[in-house]
Amino acid sequence: MRAPVTAVRTGVHRFRTPTPETDGTLCWGATTAVTVEVDAGGSTGLGWTYSSPAAAAVVTDVLSGVLCGHDAFDIPGAAEAMHRAGRNLGTRGLFAQAQSAADIALWDLKARLLDVPLADLFGRTRHRVPVYGSGGFTNLDRTQLAEQVAGWVAAGCTAMKIKIGESWGANPGRDLARVRRLRELAGDGVELMVDANGGYSPGQARRIGAALDELGVVWFEEPVSSDDVDDLGALRGELRCDVAAGEYVADAREAARLAPAVDCLQLDVTRCGGYTGWLRCTAIAVAAGRQVSGHCAPSLHVPVAAALPELRHVEWFADHARLEPLLVDGAPPVIDGELLVPDAPGHGMTLRNPEESS
Ligand SMILES: [Mg+2]
Question: This protein's superkingdom (predicted)?
Fold first, then answer.
């Protein structure tokens, strides 16, 4: 069975946030989805990443030439060829995001050519994928946070995560007050999670972590920078709450370095080499005895997350939960705290405005 790739198209879709959004170490007013469509055998596969328009240029300038003429059924070969083509650019970061979008498009294309749901191609170990509500930006006021948490409660989420580490750890008192507020809003039965986005120093993270333990928080994400693997591992040994990181992992080697230092390895299909890379990285997490959580891009994680017995959950990130139904038709809904795994061919999603691609 062969189907040479005949065309690769990219699109840049920018979605303004309702108001500026801030975490511990960054502020933004828009989110950009870079889409990749790949044609072969009369079908089209769709992938995307959340990145800069520069990721579209990487696809157009580098990856398109690699993929055109390549057999759409040979996804491992395509992944290796794309990786090799990035040697002089650096294969991580932006390049890995571009490759991820292309890889996702290839998997979607393969499933559509076979006329099967992508979840069945990967092997479906579950029909619903658990999510946690995620957002709680540091610049939300009390009313805005209450509205966001009410939305998660209404969707049946049993775990919820807010941002802390405000202004690179400059306001720890407010960070902890907001965690206590989250407990009031969420109720006793909900697992509390926090993400500092690397905003604390190691000592600060230890002190904040001890306070979080007293508040019953179960998840402390990026208490320090993910580049400080030794500090992450030390915090993991000292704190009761789980230490989590991994959203910037771009390949299996990075996953192997980080897995021992965390309780749960976060992996992002739009950053770590698409579905091909995600499956490789999850195997490393499993071999290290670690759980896996899907980072952001909830709609794209569904088919591959449904194939992983060791999955903890997928992040239902407020920005992406809002924009994915605007970007595509067929984005899976959350019901009773779980994303439904689609039964349509491929991942079941198509671009709403394909005329914006070129
Ligand atoms: Mg994070």
Answer: Bacteria
